[in-house]
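Task: sequence in, structure out. Protein: Antitermination protein NusG.
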Amino acid sequence: MLGKILLTIAVIVTALFYIRRRDLQETTSKKPKKKPTQSTVTPKTDNKVADDSLSADLRLGAYMFLVLMIGLGGALYYFRWQDDHTILTITLHSDSQAENTQYQVYKYQLQDRSFVTLDGILVTVASTERMEVLGLE
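Result:
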């Protein structure tokens, strides 16, 4: 999961550097050839102001979308982590033992027929035992 996040960040940073470099090349390549007259300055200035305004709005929208996506991704990751670290109580019922055995387990450590306790003990459930899980919703 961390690798996916780092890869996404690397792609975003690379795209930002590419776009910035392209914008710098476009601004340096544009040089006025001759001094324009008063009649030609007004329409071009209006178009340029409109283009700059549109560009600024698109850039703001892109940054807002980026912040939204990173925020949603972070929130989903946090909620998943919180759910995985829920502590469950597992009770093993065995025919050969009169008393049941209880274990405390993180939810992400629970497998089909085995689990790892909070103490780090790997427990494999036999086919003759019955496993009861408390705390799942």
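The two ends are 25 Å apart (CA to CA).
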